[in-house]
Amino acid sequence: MDRYERILSLHRILKTARYPVTVARLQDELECSRATVYRDLAFLRDALMAPVVGDGEAGFRYDTEDAERFELPGLWLTSDELHALLAAQQLLSRSTGGVLSGALAPLQSRIDKLLAEHATGDRWPVERVRVIPHRGRRMDEHAFRNVCSAVLQRKQLSFDYRARSTDEKTRRTVSPQRITHYRDNWYLDAWDHERDALRSFSVDRIGGARLLDAAARDLPEAELDQHLSGSYGIFSGPPKGIATIVFSETSARWVADEHWHSQQQGRWLPDGRYELKVPYSAARELLMDVLHYGADAEVVEPPALRQQVKSLLQLALSNYDA
């Protein structure tokens, strides 16, 4: 772990410890050398004014009288932690009037208190940090509740599904596995009994959802992860190929810092461009993201995917012909 994480972990260990903590234990928990433990303890005591007491033989702890009052100065939250807290805080503030609004009030208070504990003054001006939903879709709340109930109660679910790509309406009976929030929209990962396979369904396309008495079929977590996380995007499945995409020198500065897939491979090319390789099954979502970069992205391989991009661009260009 880096120094930031070590100092934060060290603070938490000493703040919650009822008895002095030995250097050996700190080495083990912080995954660092004995010398690093002493340097971090000195920084915590001298630079951050933490009430550290003790020695190398008996161990270290926070002074009992000052431990409750001391908090690390400034913002000691990671970007993920801050996003999670603020997203929860802002989502809860939008849930007024619902059946859960009263029950969630204590959670809202706890989040506000947790944010306040990290403030240097009376409170963080959280209104100055925004979490903005992007391209969320409207959905049938009744269907959403039934989908979630089926997932949590481990019951089979029956519903009408209108595929977005073909607008075809079918009746499905599934064993729900997971409910997934992805790119500001909800998806149901389920075992489709008619097709005898795992499928992902966009919840906003589900209607007439009805819980069945039959118990849902449970699939192993490893199988779910392999099928649903192996390829690019939400509608995945086992990877069928590796897409190689080359980005211009201009867009490379953005793409090199982006996380497209857990198994992506990227490298800088000698001319300043950036090459990205990602596994994919269904090309639809991958191509939408590639086309987002316009002329700054080129699909190099495989040839079939390259031809698919070319056809899409030609169709798009035809919209602008005189």
From TrEMBL:
Q: Which residues form the WCX domain?
A: 243-316
The source's superkingdom equals Bacteria
Q: Could you tell me what this protein is called? A: YafY family transcriptional regulator
UniProt source species: Luteimonas aestuarii
* Gene3D superfamilies named among the record's database cross-references: Winged helix-like DNA-binding domain superfamily/Winged helix DNA-binding domain (1.10.10.10)
- Which Pfam families does the UniProt record give? HTH_11, WCX, WYL
Residue ranges constituting the WYL domain according to the UniProt record: 143-210
Q: Where is the Helix-turn-helix type domain?
A: 6-61
